[in-house]
Design goal:
The structure holds 2 protein chains of 2 kinds. Chain A is mainly α. Chain A has 18 helices and no strands. Chain A has a single domain, classed as Formate dehydrogenase/DMSO reductase fold (Up-down Bundle), CATH 1.20.1630.10. In chain A, helix 4 packs across helix 9 and helix 6 runs antiparallel to helix 7. Chain A is globular, with a radius of gyration of 24 Å. Chain A starts with 20 loop residues before the first helix and ends in a 13-residue tail after the last helix. Chain B has a 4-stranded antiparallel beta sheet with strand order 2-3-1-4. Chain B is elongated, with a radius of gyration of 26 Å. Chain B starts with 5 loop residues before the first strand and ends in an 8-residue tail after the last strand. The chains are: A mainly alpha, B alpha+beta. Chains A and B meet through helix 1, helix 6, helix 7, helix 8 and helix 16 of A and helix 1, strand 2, helix 2, helix 3 and helix 4 of B.
């Protein structure tokens, strides 16, 4: 029940004084109910220019074909699949936060799940656009689906991981969208009931007629729980299947059984880094410091250390197994990665992904907003290089030394990549402007149990042990949005 | 006979709301519905609402997805057009598992959410059946059918004693949206 207090030893999930249910609504809806500020406009214009570049480069690819990319007969996959895997990986944190953390009853997810899920959807859109454009003849994309046709019907080959991928990515995208939108309904209803005129009409359509009755909420909670239950294996399966695009091939450097867990860990790693990159800026610009607190930032950093370490172990295991297998082609592939012409990319990957997250063992770094932000970007640079290393260095020196080449991206490759980042941020900024970036109903649930003011009240009422209260007040030091108030 | 259709008791705190429900039940006042800005845990038991069967719905849809996938793949690769792929068996079951799994998840998620929208009458463009505009913001509202419960003054007093900050007598069932 809502009146049950949680242990005073736990850090507060909502800080600030005099937070009431209506203040939660007011605070979170500021960006939705007011004209956007200058920071939003600057961000939006820059991102929209990026999105424009994306449209131009993708249209160029559609018109002239993928010959416009830097690909050659040896390196047939390069920045396209690198970009695809990178974006899909980033898209994993949203569902992880909303599904896995819900199953584990991690209440701190309540204030970050909404924007992380939105990020997931936008990242998967970027990823899917790579898939469509790398097909060469994108107007025939439906050939990847098992549709009746005039050739027999000639069906797709269900033994192929690329076909599994079509099913995995489209299921992941549509289920994430449903999960996100169902969760949005109560919050859209809140906007609707506060708005007037055209805004009310628009949000009324979007709210599906939500009214917050007992049965609506009862079923809503069950639906969320079951969606979390089915999304948890789904999120693991998606990157597993992405990794099988490589792992089921016979290319040295790709043909390894470690790929599924290694890719899943890497995906969570880069996804959390991207959530960190976005939320650290959002909380500042939108004044969400009371809802996205230092505890949230620190918890995400801890997940980044964990998954970063798993990724590090996977890199070392790959090297060991290549040597231990005794297969000379496998050994050469890894020797080439470490010391060949792409060694610079390999060592950037190693530094960014294995060494830099280890800095989060230091509490000072873990709780520094500037450093967390910087490292979150470093992690995503590293994760881009990981995919580049896996894809390009495994291909560029193939079985015939006469066909060994290097890969050089063309301006179209660069344009699509930078453009996809622009597209991602454009969509994210539009989301911040028109929909509540924090799940209001879920934050309201925490108000009586896990907020700073509820805990301060317990201390003031002398309802808790003195030593525990002191421990609690001490732990508040690192927050930027709260100053320890000794129970007056 | 007054024109009052519904009596709404507004509470500011979920615990007061639960207390109010308890008081009304002690006095044998039937509750029409309760509108809240967030889920209230334990309210279903108090109001005697049965456990939702959406879990079973999700399971049935999921099973439909699994069967659809295995049937479709077997028909296409084994019956309709068997092909020799590296001399391997046509019915390569392990290769079919990923898509069977994906369709299970897809069917169960969409089937369950679709059923949820259907039984709760949620659809784009549906007129919101809201009794009070603050019930989606910061008020926890108990709605009592005024026709079924005649002693309005007594109900008002029960609600106020239980901690209601406001008691409203509505002559229309829902807030007009036009």
């Amino acid at each position: 029940m809502s009146s049950h207090h949680e242990s005073i030893l736990r850090e507060p999930l909502v800080t600030g004084e005099n937070i009431t249910y209506s203040k939660v609504t007011e605070d979170i809806l500021v960006p939705v109910e007011n004209k956007p500020n200058k920071a939003w406009w600057i961000g939006f214009i820059v991102s929209a220019m990026g999105a424009g570049l994306w449209i131009f480069s993708v249209s160029w690819t559609f018109w002239f074909g993928i010959g416009e990319w830097g690909l050659n007969k040896t390196v047939g996959w390069a920045w396209d699949i690198t970009g695809f895997v990178w974006w899909v990986g980033i898209g994993h944190a949203g569902t992880l936060i909303s599904a896995v953390l819900l199953l584990f009853r991690q209440n701190w997810r309540n204030s970050i799940n909404r924007s992380a899920e939105a990020m997931t959807i936008f990242a998967v859109i970027c990823a899917a656009s790579y898939i469509i454009s790398h097909m060469g003849r994108p107007w025939l994309f439906h050939w990847a689906l098992p549709l009746p046709n005039q050739y027999g019907s000639l069906w797709v080959n269900f033994n192929s991981p690329l076909v599994w991928d079509v099913f995995a990515i489209s299921t992941y995208f549509s289920v994430s969208l449903v999960f996100w939108y169902t969760g949005l309904l109560p919050d859209i209803a809140t906007i609707r009931d506060r708005a007037i005129g055209t805004r009310r009409r628009v949000y009324s359509i979007l709210s599906f007629g939500w009214n917050g009755s007992v049965k609506t909420w009862q079923r809503f909670e069950l639906v969320s729980l079951i969606l979390a239950g089915v999304s948890t294996p789904l999120v693991l399966s998606v990157h597993t299947i992405v990794s099988m695009d490589f792992a089921t091939s016979v290319i040295p450097g790709w043909h390894t059984t470690i790929f599924p867990p290694y890719f899943v860990a890497g995906a969570i790693f880069s996804g959390f880094a991207m959530v960190q990159t976005l939320l650290l800026v959002t909380r500042k610009v939108m004044n969400f410091e009371n809802y996205i607190t230092m505890f949230h930032i620190e918890s995400m950093n801890k997940i980044i250390i964990l998954t970063g370490s798993i990724v590090g172990v996977a890199y070392l295991t790959e090297l060991f197994i290549a040597w231990y297998s005794g297969v000379e082609y496998e050994q050469y592939a890894f020797l080439n990665r470490v010391s060949g012409p792409y060694a610079w990319a390999y060592w950037i990957m190693m530094t960014c992904n294995v060494i830099s997250p280890q800095l989060f063992w230091f509490k000072k770094i873990r709780t520094s907003i500037a450093l967390s932000w910087l490292l979150s970007i470093v992690v995503n640079i590293g994760m881009w290089f990981e995919r580049f290393v896996i894809i390009v260095t495994s291909l560029h020196r193939d079985y015939l030394p006469s066909s060994w080449v290097m890969f050089y991206p063309s301006w179209v490759d660069v344009g699509i990549f930078i453009g996809s980042i622009g597209l991602f941020f454009t969509l994210f900024l539009l989301f911040l402007r028109f929909l509540p970036a924090i799940a209001m109903a879920e934050v309201k649930l925490l108000l009586k149990s896990s907020s700073d003011q509820a805990k301060q009240k317990l201390i003031a009422d002398k309802a808790v042990d003195k030593g525990q209260a002191d421990y609690y007040l001490e732990s508040l030091e690192k927050y930027d949005s709260v100053s320890p108030r000794v129970g007056q | 006979m007054s024109n009052i259709k519904y009596i709404l008791g507004h509470f500011e705190d979920p615990d007061d709301l639960m207390h109010g429900i308890g008081k009304l039940q002690e006095n044998k006042v039937s509750i029409y519905d309760v509108y809240t800005p967030m889920p209230i845990h334990g309210i279903e038991d108090k109001l005697g609402i049965k456990r939702s069967r959406l879990g079973k719905v999700a399971f049935c849809f999921g099973l439909t997805g699994t069967i659809t996938a295995i049937t479709m793949i077997t028909y296409m690769l084994v019956i309709d057009w068997p092909m020799n792929i590296g001399g391997k068996p046509n019915f390569a079951f392990p290769d079919f598992v990923p898509i069977m799994f994906e369709l299970t998840v897809l069917f169960s998620a969409f089937g369950m959410v679709g059923t949820y929208f259907f039984v709760n009458h949620l659809a784009p463009g549906r007129a919101p059946r809201v009794m009070d505009l603050r019930a989606t913001n910061d008020r926890f509202v108990i709605a009592i059918d005024a026709k079924d419960n005649a002693e309005h003054d007594k109900i008002d007093n029960i609600l106020k004693e239980a901690g209601a900050v406001e008691v409203k007598h509505n002559e229309r069932k829902y807030v007009s949206y036009e």
